[in-house]
Amino acid sequence: MVLYIGGRKWEEVVFIGEYWGKIDDKGRVVIPSKLRKDLFQHNIKNVYITRGLENCLFVFPENIWSAQTERLKSLPFTKVDPRAFTRLFFSGAFQSKIDRQGRIVLPQHLASYAGLKDNIVIIGVGDRLEIWSEDKWNDYSTKALESYGKIAETLLGS
């Protein structure tokens, strides 16, 4: 898919897979080489990190962040749910440059929100990455796999 944001052409990256890693004592996480290659191929050097759902972190490449921002700006601020969601989504957001070693910095408030202490899992979720504590990911994925077929049937039909 090709996006046009601010007159600039962006080819969308599609992230897939599960990758295990660690958060270091300076709050940095290494983006796995496969994912890093995808980002660098599309000339993406910055990511935006914010509170995700189910206590994970969402990591958006800069082009998808711009598109997501436009979608959220179109929500009616006069309604309670959009107002609450956008407040939490944007107030927790942090821009991080991918360094030469392929690391990004996770600010303390986001690491605390996601319960990140040592072992983490980074998953590709199409247009974004998610960072989970290993324990939370194992719990979540085990439960979700139990209803995977039912979810597919509901979303995709028979």
CATH topology: Chemotaxis protein chec
Overall, the morphology is globular
The overall strand count is 10
Instruction: Estimate the strand proportion.
Output: 25-35%
Describe this structure in words.
It contains six helices and ten strands; from the N terminus they run ββββαββααββαββαα. The strands form three sheets. A six-stranded antiparallel beta sheet has the order 3-9-10-6-5-7. A two-stranded antiparallel ribbon has the order 1-2. Strands 4-8 form a two-stranded antiparallel ribbon. Strand 5 and strand 6 form a beta hairpin. It has one domain (2-156): 3-Layer(aba) Sandwich (Chemotaxis protein chec). It has helices at 33-41, 62-73, 80-91, 108-114, 134-146, 148-156, and strands at residues 2-5, 8-11, 18-22, 28-30, 46-51, 57-61, 94-97, 103-105, 119-124, 129-133. It has 158 residues and is of the alpha+beta class. The protein starts with a strand and ends with a helix.
List keywords for this structure.
158 residues; alpha+beta; Chemotaxis protein chec; six-stranded antiparallel beta sheet; two-stranded antiparallel sheet; 6 helices; 10 strands; disordered N terminus
What topology does this entry show?
Elements: E1 2-5, E2 8-11, E3 18-22, E4 28-30, H1 33-41, E5 46-51, E6 57-61, H2 62-73, H3 80-91, E7 94-97, E8 103-105, H4 108-114, E9 119-124, E10 129-133, H5 134-146, H6 148-156
Antiparallel strand pairs: 1-2, 3-9, 4-8, 5-6, 5-7, 6-10, 9-10
